[in-house]
Amino acid sequence: MRTTEYLIATQKESPAEAEIASHQLMIRAGLVRKLASGLYTWLPTGLRVLNKVKEIVRDEMNKASAIEISMPVVQPADLWEASGRWEEYGPELLRIKDRHNRDFVLGPTHEEVITALVKNEISSYKQLPLNLYQIQTKFRDEVRPRFGIMRSREFIMKDAYSFHIDHESLDQTYQRMHQAYCNIFERIGLEYRAVIADSGSIGGAVSHEFHVLAESGEDDIAFSNKSDYAANVELAEVIASGERLSANEDVKTVDTPNAKTIDEVALQLSVEPEYCVKTLIVKASEESAHEYIAIVLRGDHVLNDIKASKHPLVASPLQMASEDEVNKAFGVNFGSIGPLGIACPILVDRSAANCSDFICGANMDGQHYTGVNFDRDVKDYDVADLRNIESGDTSPDGKGTIEIRKGIEVGHIFQLGDKYSNALTCGVLTESGKHQTLQMGCYGIGVTRIVAAAIEQNHDKFGIQWPEAIAPFKVALIPMNMYKSQRVAEVAHRLYADFIAAGVEILFDDRKERPGVMFNDMELIGIPHSIVIGERNLDNLQVEHKNRKTGEKQLLNIDEVVAFITNQAGV
RNA sequence: CGGUGAGUGGCGCAGCUUGGUAGCGCACUUGGUUUGGGUCCAAGGGGUCGUAGGUUCAAAUCCUAUCUCACCGACCA
């Protein structure tokens, strides 16, 4: 490709609204342009990258025996009414009417359509398992589109749906998809983690998210430094390390005037917060036959709402008691609540349960106890996993310690079970001739989001540094003063032809621009290899190669350039 | 949906407080200059100042309404 026949569309400045690197760089490098909130046009360079990602996804899906189809973006509402999601989905579902005033939706996902399809096409267990996918535009009327292409309303998703006679078969395909996803992200060249998204209470994981690690990510990922364990911070189970030490001290009452927080208590008593416990009062569930529950955490730990609300004694969703309610029920204000002698059931976090001789509120304003111990002093309580996992905790699989980093969710795989097949009565006849509802799995990848995530992970102050596998071009050919130097022009044209003959994707900057402009544009666009042709090196029949990622420069003989690139880039 | 802020050539902004008929940088066009890291000079083209209404001799500027967008919180690939 020649720049003079191409649309470069680079910019010096990025729009004020672009907050994160990938958004700024996608606009500055001329990859996308915004049409309206959450709606983007893909310019030629961006589209080349997008297509590379699509091809890798497609290839790995095919290798995993998934079969490509294409379903409509516009879907009739009655399917959504049948699945219950016409009511359930809410305003993110864009609803439209046709000329006959019939209701349709712009598909945010395709479970309904695929299930209806399979219901009609598949009638025997012999045709199973079946795994169908498409790479296609989705529309979700996001509350707040953000970060450019990262969270747009219209986006491209690879969505796959598998159908099975039983759970065992579903599990096999699920594992296969898990592996396919790992292959995809490895091939693209991204640092990622497969994250446990929901450790179902019955039998193992039923959902994994795939996250690309990047500072700008919106999710906190906890992962082991020794194993491949990874989970959302909210969902990661915490196992308490160590054992409780024996009680040495007696309970004493100390004055802690005006100390409302653990930090203030710890400061007044000159101890670290981890030697204190904090007691939080939450609303109890109906079945608990109490009004409130006291939750006890170590002073330096953070309550995990999700875990707490899953406990049978605790109201779901979690509701913290107000200070007035606490005062009314227990005769004490925030700051001096404690488990010792409190008139409600007590839930103790696993880590807090390992504390001994600890400090806690005395249930009298302005006073705390020291030297408190479970069992000896606090007798009736339940232990549960109630806090957020933290950096440095032991990994839940027992291997290594936990690190926490930000992640961008780019993929999600699910074992759906029979939710949709049941609602739309999708089943087959079994070997014994009985009707059997199918088990389903679904597997999504945010194709457009991968492009943004790749930039988040691979850029510097000059621009994008594309991984080879998804770079819009492998090589930028940059001639110095081609319009003045006949020699430079000749070599440039010859190399350009050679690269094309060798099947290398090359961008030949034949604009009549100053060198600085060309260097800056090619670096901003992020092409992995630059070949610079200048009078300077032509006497020795050499040109210069520069690696975008490492910045390394070296001189190459003109005759060797193409081979050098094809060997290095694995073309 | 709640909170905050902004709408002025393609992009980034100034002008608004104190009304007087729109300006700067980038980009674009032309000519010259320069040519291994976003040259420099000159000339030029392009804007219903988000929209509607009002106040006024006069509105980008003041008032009212409305629309849109962005940023911060709960959802998602």
Automatic annotation (TrEMBL):
Query: Which Gene Ontology terms describe the biological processes this protein takes part in?
Result: prolyl-tRNA aminoacylation
GO cellular component assignments = cytosol
EC numbers on record: 6.1.1.15
EC top class named in words? ligase
Entry's InterPro entries? aa-tRNA-synt_IIb (IPR002314), aa-tRNA-synth_II (IPR006195), aa-tRNA-synth_II/BPL/LPL (IPR045864), Anticodon-bd (IPR004154), Anticodon-bd_dom_sf (IPR036621), Pro-tRNA-ligase_IIa (IPR002316), Pro-tRNA-synth_IIa_bac-type (IPR004500), Pro-tRNA-Synthase_IIa_type1 (IPR023717)
One Pfam assignment = tRNA_edit
Boundaries of each Aminoacyl-transfer RNA synthetases class-II family profile domain copy?
Answer: 38-479
Q: Which Gene3D superfamilies match?
A: Anticodon-binding domain, Bira Bifunctional Protein, Domain 2
Location within or outside the cell? Cytoplasm
- Catalytic activities: tRNA(Pro) + L-proline + ATP = L-prolyl-tRNA(Pro) + AMP + diphosphate
Q: Which UniProt keywords apply?
A: Aminoacyl-tRNA synthetase, ATP-binding, Cytoplasm, Ligase, Nucleotide-binding, Protein biosynthesis
- UniProt xrefs under HAMAP family: Pro_tRNA_synth_type1 (MF_01569)
The text the record gives for the protein's domains is:
Consists of three domains: the N-terminal catalytic domain, the editing domain and the C-terminal anticodon-binding domain.
Q: What does this protein do?
A: Catalyzes the attachment of proline to tRNA(Pro) in a two-step reaction: proline is first activated by ATP to form Pro-AMP and then transferred to the acceptor end of tRNA(Pro). As ProRS can inadvertently accommodate and process non-cognate amino acids such as alanine and cysteine, to avoid such errors it has two additional distinct editing activities against alanine. One activity is designated as 'pretransfer' editing and involves the tRNA(Pro)-independent hydrolysis of activated Ala-AMP.
The family this protein is said to belong to: Belongs to the class-II aminoacyl-tRNA synthetase family. ProS type 1 subfamily.
Q: How does it assemble?
A: Homodimer.
Q: What is this protein called?
A: Proline--tRNA ligase
Q: Which organism is it from?
A: Agaribacter marinus
